[in-house]
Amino acid sequence: MTLAFNLACRFKPDVFKLGKMRGPITFYLLSIFTHGMNGLCMVLLLQGSRYVMMGIGSLLFMVSDMILMTYKFILGNNKWLIRANSLTYFSGLLLIVLSTAM
Questions:
Q1: Which of 23, 34, 50, 96 has its CA 20 to 30 A from that of 15?
Q2: Residue 66 lies in a domain
Q3: How far apart are CA 102 and CA 100, in angstroms?
Q4: Structural domain span for residue 54
Q5: Which of 99, 42, 91, 44 is nearest to 63 (CA)?
Q6: Virtual CA dihedral for 55, 56, 57, 62, nearest 10 degrees?
Q7: How does pLDDT run across 45-97, given as a tens digit for each residue?
């Protein structure tokens, strides 16, 4: 995924307005996907509702960060992206907190 992102940035610089932030954003993207895939592994491999809730919360955080990155660097001023970001962020946060309370 990070390779596809780097190729897209190289061949479509007018769409991906990153400038000097390309390297840090690539590292950030790699970190986001690592945490999201860990959440997916928790959902699929571990049993128990607390692990499923923690995994889904991590996946929602990954989606939230992807939406935020799209808003900040690609699409710009879009109110629906901010609403979708808030929905996924706070839902993920709620699930992670509830998973620790069980």
A1: 34
A2: yes
A3: 6
A4: 33-102
A5: 91
A6: 90
A7: 998 889 999 999 999 999 998 888 888 777 778 889 899 999 999 999 999 99
In a domain, 37, yes or no: yes
Number of domains in the chain: 1
In a domain, 54, yes or no: yes
- Asked if residues 62 and 89 have their Cβ atoms less than 8 Å apart, the reply is no
Kindly report the pTM of this predicted structure.
0.78
Number of neighbouring beta carbons within 10 Å of residue 59: 21
Angle at 24 between CA 82 and CA 35, to 5 degrees: 65
- How deeply is 60 buried, as exposed, middle or buried, from its count of CB atoms within 10 A (0-12, 13-18, 19+)? buried
In a domain, 25, yes or no: no
